[in-house]
Design goal:
Blueprint lengths: L1 H6 L22 E3 L2 E4 L2 E4 L5 E2 L22 E9 L4 E7 L5 E8 L4 H15 L9 E7 L2 E7 L6 H8 L4 H21 L12 E3 L5 E3 L4 H8 L15 H4 L7 H16 L16 H10 L12 H10 L10 H5 L2 H5 L7 H6 L15 H5 L1
Antiparallel strand pairs: 1-2, 2-3, 4-8, 5-6, 6-7, 7-9, 8-9, 10-11
Helix pairs in contact: 2-5, 4-7, 7-9
Bound molecules: adenosine-5'-triphosphate and magnesium ion.
Magnesium ion (MG) binds next to loops.
Family: Belongs to the protein kinase superfamily. STE Ser/Thr protein kinase family. MAP kinase kinase subfamily.
EC number: 2.7.12.2
Protein name: mitogen-activated protein kinase kinase
């Protein structure tokens, strides 16, 4: 099919007086109108989808910088998750054969609002931090904003705690250190609040790397509906000052992180009554408990003093009393395991992966063209 289309193409050599750099990109790609030629082959680029951002500034992997993304180049392998905004799919790039997570956010919105969202997503994508999931590219097509994300092959912390129930302190320290580094970047370098730190937004790969994702997405979703301060998602990890409608700052992410880490340690969401006590909290009871009751803490008879102190440094109802991400990186709980060579990769590799990747044959150049 593609072979036939290509056979009908007339290739014309640029006239002598045309400067070569009009056609050649830094990566050695020749491009003229809809035609692109590089070491990966010859390709017709159609303008079916609107590409929102260039990938050059977003990539932490130098090899990815040359990758041209078009929706038609991404083949779906499997749906890997569903959130309140849309579906996340595992996709494979037809040309470089690498895997990515494609997150679709359904949005039937006006052109002006779309431009605003695009602008916000664009700002959010310029991240150069190993502890933040890379967003390589985004598209807008048929009312859906699609984000091409770094694929984290061990899923989220939510997937992991479903399997292991609890995570031991040494692993929690290693995991937490990475999340704190991501938060230091967001809070102290980018001066932004994540707003939705929770187990499903902390992703893990087989190397044991933990990265924060969905930074800014919930704010963008809310603003697209004309409700800038309306939250889309779960309220479980939301700080008391946000629930009660007071002003809040980056310390509200620290509250959320404290709850997530405590949940991983004790094996249940800290505000849900333990199995021995009766009943579950309703939505309103939960919000009331977060705002009115003393904050949860780590049981001193089950956990180290360093861990109990770390949790209490995060889960303080008064945001002023909470430590910052920078201070927490220096906390004795994080320091305690720093030179112990704890490998989170070994823990996650012993678990079932969220997706069993099928074996793929790397296509030959001729196969792509025919
Ligand atoms: P909500 O929409 O309420 O925030 P959520 O975070 O679970 O919930 P999504 O962000 O849409 O919703 O993600 C759905 C699931 O897809 C996640 O729980 C995670 O398991 C998976 N996922 C998301 N991004 C990636 C990624 N980059 N790599 C691997 N898996 C991912
Ligand atoms: Mg998410």
């Amino acid at each position: 099919m593609k072979g036939k289309a290509l056979a009908q193409l007339k290739l014309s050599v640029p006239a002598q007086e045309t400067p070569v750099d009009k056609f050649l990109t830094a990566s050695g790609t020749f491009q003229d109108g809809e035609l692109r030629l590089n070491q990966k082959g010859l390709k017709l680029i159609r303008e079916e989808t609107e590409s929102l951002t260039p990938s050059q500034t977003q990539s932490s992997d130098a090899n990815e910088e040359d990758v041209q993304f078009a929706l038609e180049d991404l083949e779906t392998i499997k749906v890997i998750g569903k959130g309140s905004g849309g579906v996340v799919q595992l996709v494979r790039h037809k040309w470089n054969c690498k895997f990515y997570a494609l997150k679709g956010i359904q949005m039937n919105i006006q052109e002006t609002i779309r431009k605003q969202i695009v602008q916000e997503l664009k700002i959010n994508q310029v991240t150069q931090c190993p502890e933040i999931v890379v967003c390589y590219h985004s598209f807008y097509h048929n009312g859906v904003i699609s984000l091409v994300l770094e694929y984290m092959d061990r899923g989220s912390l939510a997937d992991i705690i479903k399997q292991v129930k609890t995570i031991l302190e040494p692993y929690l320290a290693v995991l937490c250190k990475q999340v704190l580094k991501g938060l230091v970047y967001l809070h102290h370098e980018r001066h932004v609040i994540h707003r939705d730190i929770k187990p499903s937004n902390l992703l893990v790969n087989h190397k044991g790397e933990v990265k924060i994702t969905d930074f800014g997405v919930s704010a963008v979703l809310a603003s697209s509906m004309g409700q800038r301060d309306t939250f889309v998602g779960t309220y479980n990890y939301m700080s008391p000052e946000r629930i009660s409608g007071s002003s809040y700052d980056y310390k509200s992410d620290i509250w959320s992180l404290g709850l997530v880490i405590l949940e991983c340690a004790i094996g249940r969401f800290p505000y849900i009554p333990s199995e021995e006590s009766e009943g579950w909290l309703s939505f309103y009871e939960l919000l009331e408990a977060i705002v009115d009751q003393p904050p949860p803490s780590a049981p001193a008879d089950q956990f180290s003093p360093e861990f109990c102190s770390f949790i209490s440094a995060c889960i303080q109802k008064d945001p002023q009393q909470r430590m910052s991400a920078l201070q927490l990186l220096e906390h004795p709980f994080i320091k305690k395991f720093e030179d112990k060579d704890i490998d989170l990769g070994i823990l996650v590799s012993s678990l079932d992966p969220p997706v069993n990747l099928p074996e793929f044959k790397v296509p030959l150049y001729q196969d792509i063209l025919s």
